[in-house]
Amino acid sequence: MSGRTFDSKDYLRNYSTNNSSSSRPDHPTDNEEDSYYNRSGHQRSLNQFTIDKDFEDTLNVALENIDQNPFVKSNRDLYNNNKNNKYLTNDNNSGDSPDNFDSYSLKSIPLDQMNSNSNGITSNNNNYGDEYNDGNVPLIPGNTPRSSSSRSSKHKPSSASTARSIWSKGVDSLINSSNRLVLGNSKRKIQLPNDGDEFRIDDENEDDMISQSRTISPHMSSSQFPGNAISNAKYNIFSFFPVILFEQFKFFFNLYFLIVALSQAIKPLRIGYLSTYIVPLAFVLSVTMMKEAIDDIQRRRRDKEQNNELYEVLGSSKQIPAKNLKCGDLVRLTKDRRVPADMVLLQSSESSGESFIKTDQLDGETDWKLRIACPLTQHISEEDLEVVKVMAQPPSKHIHSFLGKLTYGDHTTGLSVDNTMWANTVLASGTAVGIIVYTGKDTRQSMNTSTPGVKTGLLELEINSLSKILCIGVFILSVVLVACQGFAGKWYVNIMRFLILFSTIIPVSLRVNLDLGKSVYAYQIEHDDAIPETIVRTSTIPEDLGRIEYLLSDKTGTLTQNDMELKKLHLGTVSYAGDTMDLVAGYIADIGEQVKSSRRDMGTRVRDLVSTMAICHNVTPSYEDGELSYQAASPDEIAIVKFTKSVGLSLIKRDRHSLALYHEAPKRTYEYEILQVFPFNSDTKRMGIVVLDKTRDELWFLQKGADTVMMSIVQHNDWLEEETSNMAREGLRTLVVARKKLKSTVYEEFKTKYQEASMSMVNRDQAMAKVISQYLEYDLELLGLTGVEDRLQKDVKSSIEVLRNAGVKIWMLTGDKVETARCVSVSAKLIARGQYVHTVTKLNRPEIALQQIEYLKTNRDACLLIDGESLGTYLSHFKDEFFQIVVHLPAVIACRCSPQQKADVALLIREATHKRVCCIGDGGNDVSMIQCADVGVGIVGKEGKQASLAADFSITQFCHLTKLLLWHGRNSYKRSAKLAQFVMHRGLIISACQALFSICSKFEPIALYQGWLMVGYATCYTMAPVFSLVLDCDVNESLVSLYPELYKELTEGKSLSYKTFSVWCLVSLFQGLVIEGLSQTFTGLGEEMFLGLVAISYTALILNELAMVAIEINKWNKTMLIVEVLTLACYIGSIPFLGDYFDLSYVGSVNFVWQTVVILSVSLLPIWSAKAINRKLRPPNYAKVQQA
């Protein structure tokens, strides 16, 4: 808050009674109705101020030494330099004489012209002595220590340095002691002005900013800047193989098989044919490399197309490819052309300098953005553009901010993001000329592009752990077999040979099967008609959809539609909603030629509110096929403008400098000139506009914003806070609407100060905001309150209820108000009927933080409602204690959250619970949260595609998440779990056969199956039937929503656990021993019958696997049946070609047939019987549901 100048008795003697003034430039006179000093409506005079003795003494010290003021050469010099400055003149005294000039006034030296950390002097200000250099003078209290001389001085100074110290002491003490100034009996604290305090600039930081800035001019040498060629390729000719191999062999089972394959190059370790081990590994790598190569080739083709796009460059006789553009090039763009590099807009085909761009490929937002050509260059010739110079800030990744200056001749103007066109945006209207300021990797697009981290699913981590257990088991088995030989001879070689023989326990085909399975799941998700337009962007984690325990959701656009409709107006004494909106339309119809009326006249108040709503916005009307539509970045603003249109006041024209409203009743158009626009952002939470009403020749400042910031800006009232809370409880989004009439002199002064602030290269936004606050944002007339409804998404209530029954804990993280979030939570059934809501808000004292959540330790069925301030306190001081308590709650609602807080919550839940976290949102503020989650889901909504593009899965409705998790997540997890264990079973059973054969062969490391038999076993003889398990499902689709409790058992990981793994190991061991033991019983171990042994055991092994697949299938389909039959036919058909491995005469005998049947019966019947009995006695939950 800017303060006022308060006068002691000595000070009052130097002034006339009419000279008391406020630091506010438009402070009203005593006879004006709305006084800044007194918002309640009556005047207070200066003699009502009570000033303590210390303050008066301090002021006297400053006055006593004012003639030695080190900042001023002389009163006459200061007067001559500033005679046109309203702050430095006294209208009531004879301002023509410098002798009468008041050198004391603190406002004589605007602190915003001083550099608080420098030597107290600015290079462009002649008010201060050039020779002055005293770093000890504390222009701003609290940062610069007082000199000892200033503390000890008790007499009038005899030197300039002593005077400076005493003068600075006076000013410092004056400002500090102002904290004790009180107003009348109310003891209201008043703060004197601290113009330079808030936006102090560090010289070193400013020097760094300037030194790193770049100056761009046409035809300059740009060798110091990167080229403009685009390269999104992931690999090059040198990195392709190393990177691919690293990604593949970072998984233990792939690395294990690589070592086994390499060992075959050592002759003593070679077992069978080298191809037996190389071919499966080569197949895996080939599939992966082919997929990666195709993806990278496509990326390179897209890059090539963009790099070779031709652009017109001023001064060049031919068009230039995009990759050859450089900083300083003047590029002409036409409609629908991609912007090739970051540019500053110099000229537009529109006389107003306006151009629209599409930014959906940059930020995901679908609305068009308005860009303004620099006013210095809009109307100059193309030849004159050659002498333009642009000073731009260092490259930055912030797409919504830019600082720069443009110089043309002797004129310089500031540049902002409104004057830019970033690379990869598209010009949506007309033609434009721009100068390139950033190229290549310095562009905003490149700096915001990063290779997303590869997400690894929980199932793969579990499989990797099981593979390590298998490896340890193989090593132990090898050592045991060698120990049975007595460690004779080269025993270490035998250990290695046994390790190689049993390498099939960790099958190399496991990764291939899992990756192909993920592709099948992604295809099924994207082609599900019940969830249309769903996109799988990360195909490596579909199984995690079935393991979600925490769901973090945004509110607006996710749980709600982001389809706004204005439902209510409140004017303090009366509100309008529903049918009473017809009264509003009636008042608007009577606008006509208004006569001056009482402020209590309701019609006037309604007309003022609606007309302000129709003007104060950033909405642009557009006409397509004769239909009027509106475009804006905020759906709230469109809802408000549509409402004013519905009551008879339509926005029909809008450009940068003017807008027009059409009044339907008298069929009259009202013209307004737009002088300034202050757009809404998440920091200010308000937007304002300065307009000139051409009809009445009046200047108005209009503003609307959130109640939290507007309460301190509008005039005192006793209803705003209460009614805002009431509307929030109704689930309405509120905006406070206010206005203020401006004097032309005040606006001109504001315009000058605002222009100066806009030229700053450091802290520009803060400086501009300060000027707005000082000149405009105070004592606004409160017109009313708007309530906009954001309807719930389709089937949100039922979806949340189903997910809660499925055991998913739901957190809602929103930036909205506490009451609005509470209301939406109740209506969306996030908070159950009768559920206790424990509320923690405005908590900023760490010492009582833990007490606030103590109740939740013993009441875990309660819901927590917390705001961003309180959440920040817990995250800063007690994050571990906080999350240990709240992770057990069924629902948490966090309000007023920043995007970073959302991301932090997601990460901390993962760390605290080690559970799978899913985050869902629809806007750019949800991207951080989505990327930090185990599974990120983006909704394509009205806020654009930014969240969708950053997510792992993209959907169009929140209710689609239910099927995505409960059906596709269930199937993906259970299928992959069964597939992985079956592939391991396939390797274990053949290893069991090999182990028994080695034991019976006097512990010799001799291979039982060699060459094609090993390759065929892992590929064409068993792979297709085993892979067909990815089409299996254990329950019908309709039952997963009807019985969401089925999802709970998935989160426990029972489908793939140490228990299920152990069962599969026992089954594999039993079947392997039966197959190999009975085969040896029927054929013997003689060398002459070795081929017969291989034939019967291998045939039984293949048929056993086909039968095991059939036993494991829950629900048959045609594909499974066809695959089984074709695989069996393939094996039988290939037997005649296996003469090198089989005794074909034995295979053709009757003995072979009945012996194979016996082996299969002993191997399969116990397994099938145990499975059937267990299902009967202890049926799983899904079996109970199926029976029901």
Q: What labels describe this entry?
A:
36 strands; 1188 residues; alpha+beta; 16% strand; nine-stranded antiparallel sheet; 41 helices
Description:
- Residues 14-23, 77-93, 115-136 have a biased composition (Low complexity).
- It is a single chain.
- By secondary structure, this protein is of the alpha+beta class.
Estimate the global geometry from the Cα principal axes: elongated
The percent range for helix content is: 40-55%
Structural class: alpha+beta
Gap between N and C termini:
70 Å
Please provide the count of β strands.
36
Beta fraction = 15-25%
Averaged pLDDT, please? Answer: 79
Counting H and I runs of at least 4 residues, what is the number of helices?
41
What is the alpha-carbon Rg in Å? 39 Å
Poorly predicted regions are 1-59, 61-206, 593-599
Strand order of the largest sheet: 17-36-35-34-18-30-33-32-31
Main location: membrane
Membrane topology: Multi-pass membrane protein
Cofactor: Mg(2+)
GO biological process, one term: retrograde vesicle-mediated transport, Golgi to endoplasmic reticulum
